[in-house]
Design goal:
This protein has 116 residues and is mainly α. 53% of the residues lie in helices and 3% in strands. It has six helices and two strands; from the N terminus they run ααααββαα.
Length: 116
C-alpha cells in the first residue's frame, strides 16, 4: 500500500496557510503555535526547529516529543471524514491538527480547543 502524498509534504509549507486561516478570522500565529505545541508536546523552540528543518508530516508526528493524550477527545468532520473514524495513525494526527485549526478559525475559545 502506498502512503498518502500528504505524508511527504513539509509542515513548514502548510504552516503559513494555518496561520493565514487563523489571522483572517482575527486569531493569531501565537494561538496556532500553542495548538501545535499542545497537540505534539513540542516547545516553541523545537517547533521552530522542525519548521526550519522542513520536516515532513510523517516524521513530524513520529518524532513528536509527547502526543497529547487528550487528542482522542477531538471529534468532528474534516474534509468530509469523521476524524475519530480514521484508522491510519498519521492521517488521524494530521486531521486532528486540521480540526483544531478549523476550530480556532471558527472563533472557539482556546480552553475548548485545547480540551481543558
Amino acid at each position: 500500500m502506498t502512503k498518502h502524498r500528504v505524508y511527504s509534504i513539509s509542515v513548514a509549507s502548510v504552516y503559513p496557510h494555518y496561520v493565514a486561516k487563523a489571522e483572517k478570522k482575527g486569531r493569531t500565529k501565537t494561538e496556532v503555535d500553542e495548538i501545535i505545541c499542545w497537540l505534539t508536546g513540542h516547545s516553541q523552540q523545537s517547533l521552530d526547529d522542525q519548521l526550519a528543518a522542513k520536516t515532513n508530516f510523517e516524521d513530524f508526528f513520529a518524532q513528536a516529543p509527547q502526543m497529547n493524550p487528550s487528542r482522542s477527545l477531538i471529534t468532528g468532520v474534516v474534509c468530509g471524514v469523521r476524524v475519530e473514524d480514521i484508522q491510519e495513525t498519521t492521517m488521524r494526527e494530521i486531521r486532528y491538527l486540521d480540526k483544531l485549526i478549523d476550530e480556532l478559525a471558527k472563533g472557539k475559545a482556546m480552553e475548548k480547543i485545547l480540551r481543558k
